[in-house]
Amino acid sequence: MKTFENVLIHGFVALLLATSIFPIAWLFMVSTKSPLEVFARPPVWIYKPILDNYYEIFVAQRFDAYILNSIVISSCSTALSVAIGSLGAYSFARFKFRGSRNIAAWILSTRMFPPIAAAVPIFILWKQVGLFDTQLGLTIVYAASNLPYVVWMMRAFLLEIPRELEEAAMVDGCTRLGALTRIVLPLARPGLTATSILCIILSWNEFLFALVLTSMSAKTASVAITGYITAYGVKWGEVGAAAIAVTIPVIIFGLLAQRHLVRGLTFGAVKG
Amino acid sequence: MLKSFGDKQHHNKNLFPFLLIVPSLALLLAVNIFPLIYSLFLSFESWSLVKPGDRSFVGLRNYVEVLTNPAFAEALNKTLIFTAVAIISEFLIGFALAVALSHNLKGVGAIRSVILMPLVMTPVVTGLVWRFMYNPEYGMINYFLNLLGISTTHAWLGDTSTALPAVILVDVWENTPFVFLILLAGLQALPREPFEAAQIDGASRWTTLTCVTLPLLKPAILVALLIRTVDALKVFDIIYVMTMGGPAAATETLSILTYRFGFLRFDMGYTAALSYIIVLIIVLASQPFVRSFFVSET
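Output (structure tokens, whole complex):
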């Protein structure tokens, strides 16, 4: 009975793993196939991979411009939100002032806010102040969108660092700012890393605000992909190449940093 | 002299923690509060970007029009069905996987790497991949079904009765890893004593599961539930790419509906009212969760 159960469990896990990996593997295959092979029935599993699709989107259609936009916007918004949010998180972790709990709860609750509801007013406002279709415009929006995550996670990480360390440093003559940079910052590095990785991934993958707030100049990679869905149908080979180009960075990032990522995702949720 | 020094210290102590959160508040004020207020005023106006000059104050008329439009009730219905089915599926599979792996920890690192992929994949890309997989002639879904003996060329995304389930499946594929990760972390953090006690008392595995594991896991379950519920209610990316709300509004959720009125019809006043109603639904429903979570933590 125990072995049957073991087989069942292993089978279940194996099935889930296969299902998780198949779509991305298959997408990769599509991106390296010629149009004939893409639509071949039965599908070809063994073929000679070609780079024509990649050439088409990068060289002929300058897809790299959109990737660059994504890189700039993701990194800048992450830097901004982690810097701002960590300061706030430090305040919530160390001090108890009037209204701190309410303010913290409010900041966290903005995560619940449906982006589409903010899309219309921000669209109009951004157009009026000249932030429409600019990298800065989207950067500001992403920094605000990720702020709740930063505050939530960094607060949890900072609570783990005993305040006695800073107090000891201050007794020895350090200012609070000095204690912050010399004691807290190095200890908070894993937390900052986990938080930053999460923010980069979230910004890179974001779609709705990028769709609504950009046009030709600041268009991000995730929006540019949808440009291949035309009225005549989808250009699957090129879409495949673009899709792989867009999603591979995040996957690699996620794999390299998975321990940090998982820690960040679950830290605020689960203690220990 | 000493007294004034003491005052300065006290004053600084009060101001410093507040100063630290000012940047956060300023940012959220600009991107969250201000647009919210602006949206409120917009919602009382009749303003379409198609006829920009024609702009007037109409009071609550937009709200009445939104609520009496059958499309709203339909979208709310689709959204609630989507959320309920997706969440239940994600929790069943995620919990099963977490329990299966919490006993048998070898290879968890590698398994986690693979399981992470649907979660970090760009949702637009996820939608596109599945759109091709659902393709009636060239898609892999029908191909595998044919291999298993079920001969079909069903247009999963083109049929009004299968479009919503098909889209829900994609969301489940995408987000079960998240539930799994949280529940696994929760399981691994549980103390051993209750389980040893249960074993001594001769509890069956099912009883242990329901009377020991689940209650102890409640905090993790609640967090995962809250996050997933709110995110499912907001769903947009995958539907935009796979069906754009179709066919015949079969997959038109609240977000898609709002997008349609705001950025395809450009009816700003109407959309502002619609957005407000949606915000009220989602934010008010989640406030008690957030408040209680925060209180119980500290």
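Chain A touches chain B through 96 residues (CB under 8 Å).
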